[in-house]
Design a protein that fits this description.
The chain is mainly beta and 120 residues long. It contains no helices and eight strands. A hairpin with an 8-residue loop joins strand 1 and strand 2. The radius of gyration is 14 Å and the shape is globular. The protein starts with a strand and ends with a strand.
């Protein structure tokens, strides 16, 4: 599992792209390392089933007991693009993915789930 974050320095653009190539039901903590705004989510899901990518803003969420603030669905074998025109402001952004939509689910998605984020 690889987490990559890129910031555009000296370009007049203050956005970051974060790529996680295999999101599972384990916490990816403090994705931006600073507060910011979630602007776009791209979910690439394998063919075996849905993946529900969940986000929490704040400190110390616990998978299985903390309800996420936002949930996006990735359909089997597709690439889903979600745009948030007004953005989702966060203090510390955390992400995980599960097999089911239930906010308290702790089961890994059935296929590899790649997630790309645009942060402002």
């Amino acid at each position: 599992m690889t987490l990559k974050a890129t910031r555009f320095h000296g370009t007049g653009v203050s956005h970051r792209v974060v790529l996680q190539d295999d999101v599972k039901a384990s916490l990816n903590s403090n994705l931006a390392y600073v507060s910011g705004t979630l602007l776009s989510v791209i979910i690439e899901t394998g063919v075996k089933g849905n993946a529900y990518v969940k986000f929490f803003s704040g400190y110390s969420p616990s998978i299985g007991t903390t309800n996420p603030h936002i949930v996006f669905r990735g359909s089997p074998g597709t690439t889903e693009v979600y745009e948030l025109p007004d953005g989702f402001a966060f203090t510390s952004l955390h992400m995980w993915a599960t097999k089911n939509a239930n906010p308290l689910d702790i089961i890994d998605p059935p296929s590899k789930t790649k997630v790309t984020l645009l942060l402002g």
